[in-house]
From TrEMBL:
Residues 33-107 form the Acyl-CoA dehydrogenase/oxidase N-terminal domain. One of its GO terms (biological process) is L-leucine catabolic process. Its EC number is 1.3.8.4. The keyword Oxidoreductase applies. It is an enzyme of class 1 (oxidoreductase). InterPro entries: AcylCoA_DH/ox_N, AcylCoA_DH/ox_N_sf, AcylCoA_DH/oxidase_NM_dom_sf. Pfam families: Acyl-CoA_dh_N. This is Isovaleryl-CoA dehydrogenase.
Length: 108
């Protein structure tokens, strides 16, 4: 048990000294081509429609009324990623939902 804690301390020390190397880890290597394409398209959407407003939203804690992000996200089919196609969703599952949320979060 002591070795486990000692190893954890060593790992933490490495991470704290070299955060830039740790931050470069990506899960994209684990995605198939469809998932990568989905990730890239959501990232582009988020950079174009969310990133320009992120700083102001964070500073004022108010969302700009001049854009309807909810509608834009719906038009881009981001609502209902996990909902079955028979109900108007994409039926893609929770991995795709997580990919979308990660890219939206990255832009904001």
């Amino acid at each position: 048990m002591q070795r486990l804690f000692a190893a954890g301390k060593n790992f933490s020390a490495v991470l704290s000294r070299n955060r830039t190397h740790h931050a470069s880890f990506t899960t994209s290597l684990l995605f198939d081509d469809t998932q990568k394409q989905f990730k890239e398209s959501v990232a582009q959407f988020a950079q174009e429609n969310i990133a320009p407003y992120a700083e102001k939203i964070d500073r004022t804690n108010c969302f700009p009324k001049d854009i309807d992000l909810w509608k834009l996200m719906g038009d881009f089919n981001l609502h209902g990623i996990t909902a079955p196609e028979q109900y108007g969703g994409l039926g893609l599952g929770y991995l795709y939902h997580c990919i979308a949320m990660e890219e939206i979060s990255r832009a904001s």
